[in-house]
Design brief:
236 residues; alpha/beta; Rossmann fold; seven-stranded parallel beta sheet; three-stranded antiparallel beta sheet; globular; binds fructose -6-phosphate
């Protein structure tokens, strides 16, 4: 594991984008595992700059996102599909047909999860997975539990996650209580993992996740077993 602490969110974003850019340049048909939330916004802005100035070409890239709220369509501005379209996809030359986000409105969510895992397998797995980390240690929406779940599955979001995510919604009651998330198998099988975190409030959970015991109570701790993990943290 490489644990890199930097002095600002801007630097974190430039570094993370640099790692993703290197992946896109060295393997133009890479499968990128992508995340939503506040942490990757700066990274996506840097990637857009790279596209605009002609350094990066996403035309052969495929993306698979980690998760989606259950019950929100892609047109809902709180959905993760909407987030990805508006923070990255619309501004680069990725082929929309090669961007995958779990469908939180599928009639059969279990079947949707199985099909999502099958899709990732068909694509040959993830080359580089970008992650954030929740205050309770979740990655994707793999919340603290008694065991790690391998497959893409539906989860009940924990109170602390609903609370943390309510900042994006008009009211706390509007935050969906369930999500569909990639499980640990696809994340751990990614060839490279890049986790970014910023803010003093993430310090304790990073300490537990990367310097404490490996336990499903701190889901991100499983990443300690990943052979190619980079964590970039900025306290500011
Ligand atoms: C988002 C995701 C979540 C976030 C995490 C941190 O797709 O999977 O695990 O990465 O909740 O969110 P932020 O970056 O908003 O602190």
């Amino acid at each position: 594991m490489r644990f890199i602490q930097v002095e600002s969110y801007e630097k974190l974003s430039r570094m993370a984008a640099g790692i993703i850019a290197a992946q896109v340049i060295s393997k133009p048909d890479s499968v990128l595992g992508l995340a939503t939330g506040s942490s990757p916004i700066g990274t996506y802005k840097e990637l857009i700059k790279g596209f605009e100035n002609g350094d990066l070409d996403f035309s052969e890239i495929t993306s698979v996102n980690l998760d989606e709220y259950v019950g929100l369509t892609g047109e809902n501005d709180q959905s993760y599909r909407y987030f990805m379209n508006n923070n990255l996809f619309y501004y680069i030359n990725i082929n929309n047909e090669n961007t995958f986000v779990p469908n939180g409105c599928a009639d059969d969510l279990a079947a949707e999860g199985a099909a999502y895992d099958e899709k990732i397998k068909e694509l040959g797995g993830i080359d580089l997975q970008l992650l954030g980390i929740g205050l309770d240690g979740h990655i994707g929406f793999n919340e603290p539990a008694d065991f790690f779940t391998k497959e893409t599955h539906v989860v009940d979001l924990h109170e602390s996650t609903i609370e943390a995510n309510s900042r994006f919604f008009a009211s706390r009651d509007d935050v969906p209580t369930k999500a569909i998330t990639m499980g640990m198998m696809s994340i751990m099988q990614a060839k490279k993992v890049l986790l970014i975190a910023n803010g003093a409030n993430k310090k304790d959970i990073l300490q537990k996740a990367f310097f404490g015991p490996i336990t499903p109570e701190v889901p991100a701790s499983i990443l300690q077993l990943h052979p190619d993990l980079t964590v970039i943290y900025s306290e500011n």
